[in-house]
Amino acid sequence: MTSVADKSILLVEDEAILAMFEKKQLEDGGYSVTHVNNGENAIQLIIQADKPFDLILMDIDLGKGLDGTQTATEILNHKEIPVVFLSSHTEREIVKKTESITSYGYVVKNSGFTVLDASIKMAFKLFEANELTKSKKEHLETVLHSIGDGVIATDSDGKVIRMNPIAEKLTGWTHDEGVGLDIKDVFKIVNVKTRALVENPVDIVLRTNSIVGLANHTVLLSRDGSEYQISDSGSPIKDLNGETRGVVLVFRDITAEYNVQSHIAKQANMLNNVLDAVIGTDFNHKINYWNKAAEKIYLWKSEEVIGKSVMEVLKTDYINLSSEQVMQRVNLDGSFIGEVIQYAKDGSIRNIEVNQVLLDDESDLPIGYIAVGRDISDRLNALRRVKESEAKLTEIIESAMDAIISIDQSKKIILFNGAAEKMFGYQSLEIIGQPLDQLIPINFRSQHDNNIDSFSKTGVSRRAMGALGEIRGLRSNGEEFPIEASISQISVKEEKLYTVILRDVSVRNLSESKIQKLLLEKENILKEIHHRVKNNMSSIFTLLTLQARAQSESSVQTILYEAAGRVKSMIVLYDKLYHSETDNTVSLQDYFPAIFNEIVSIFPKSVEVKMNILEEPIELNAKLLSSLGIILNELITNSMKHAFNEINHAVIGLKIFREDKKLYLEYSDNGLGIPESVSFENSPGFGLQLIGMLVDQIEGKISIVRQPSSIFLLEFAV
Fold first, then answer.
1. Distance of CA 93 to CAs 96, 98, 242, 278, 582, Å?
2. What is residue 311's three-state secondary structure?
3. CATH, domain 8-141, list 3.40.50.2300, 3.40.50.300, 1.10.3720.10, 3.30.559.30
4. Per-residue pLDDT tens for 412-452?
5. Model's pTM, two decimal places?
């Protein structure tokens, strides 16, 4: 497993200060971290620039533009990469929204680095496990398609659910045409001599719940009129509880083998090149021929077995028959085809498909026996894996939390999972084959039929949960209840099948009225919080101001006044929020004059304030105003500290104007200009650096005119 030091993380976080903290924590933990402040930059970096990252740590709220869930969806549409959401939100609907996008983790901010680190490591493990599962599934599909025999799987009603390419070729039915048909319609077999229909092996397996083999002299009638002499076997598909859920039918074309075996003695010199074991015996079962394939399969050399009894050399276990019954069938019918278990020289087991025939001479008089054996151990192992895969798919459907119901074109139920049983109160066996109307209140049946019919005509393959609106369900006890539904459709041999996924929303509807009340309470609580925060900050401001006045050293006094100014900008904002009638927004015309005068009044020097603010009312959100307030505080503080040392009549100006969709703040003073050596990136103090970071955070731009006096021009989009 790759070490932490090799893992690279893309941090998508719009809060500049928080991003610095998170990046430092992760790098201290040994990760390589790259930070971007919005979703568009993340998409550009991963998809267009094709930068490799092992994991994305994604904030949900990313300011304007794409949010975290939209960004993750876009990235995952182009690239497989684990995404862990990092957010201050704990609302259930937001968490569930992220789970519908990806399920690698959701971490609440400020949970601590230990929780974050554990979540990241778990995401890596989940991603590796998912990749391994995907690889195994692809491998199983490849095995099924590469088997040299025809394979057909059915459900417990004998309906075809899967066919491999060989089965398509021999039956003349494509997979898509055959799925959903009765096995007897796809796999038609007759006796080669009498032409009478032979009982289908699937019916026998479902009746006896055991493995069965095909009778001799059986011909498969292909859809295109071709005929194939075949051998086959049927095996039950069982779930983890041992219940039979369907049948796997395996068959192969032995037409050529069947014709050749009557003349096999004449062509013995050619048989060493075949892959199947060929063994010849006389009437006393003494071995007189043993080809190269038999040596390879059974590990006995020809010279070791010639003249010995085949029963002495090979221990054979027949399925459902004794060796005496098999020989009687060979003597009577001329051949026997079936699956057996045989033991090699070293005692190891071989699963063999054997064709034993009575050997005639040129006068058609029997002279002995020929046995042709094919090692099908690998094929059986592959089939076992296919059965396990089918059981897993069934288990997934049965373990789903939502009800899953499939209906045919006549709107009769053909699939009813465990969640549907719990939701409606019916057992699967009693509802399968019943009309869907049985689950719908009488008043809604006509509407529901119209919904399905209109959806069928759209040609759309699926419609999302809730797209049908809220509909009603009917439990077995007569109780009606509200449900949400998604629907999908597929066509099988020109017949449409529909699957609906249902969700009981009774509890949710009951909760919605409570939520409305809670939202109103939340609004009132938020106003009270704004008021209390303002009062608490006022206390902090007073303490800082008193402490500043009590200091004899001007440098200490200045630091305390600066801190008081930053607190004051927040006090003004929370005061405006408390009195605001809108949701978490404040008028620019109310906020800026108030904060300007409040901060200037902190300092002892008398300053004239000139303001020119546009008359058009503009509402800005609290997050943006908080950043603008701190920027303004730093500019005023900088002027009061450095600009007016040699100026008697100090003047500060603030001009706010708008052009198109951009807002411009022009701040100026008549003091000494800022030296060329000082910039937002290179400043002896913290103030200008903080301004630069906050301007980046609000995605704005700021420039400085240095001489003869300082002018700062800030622009940002609104």
1. 5, 9, 39, 68, 24
2. helix
3. 3.40.50.2300
4. 998 888 888 888 899 988 989 999 888 888 888 887 777 77
5. 0.34
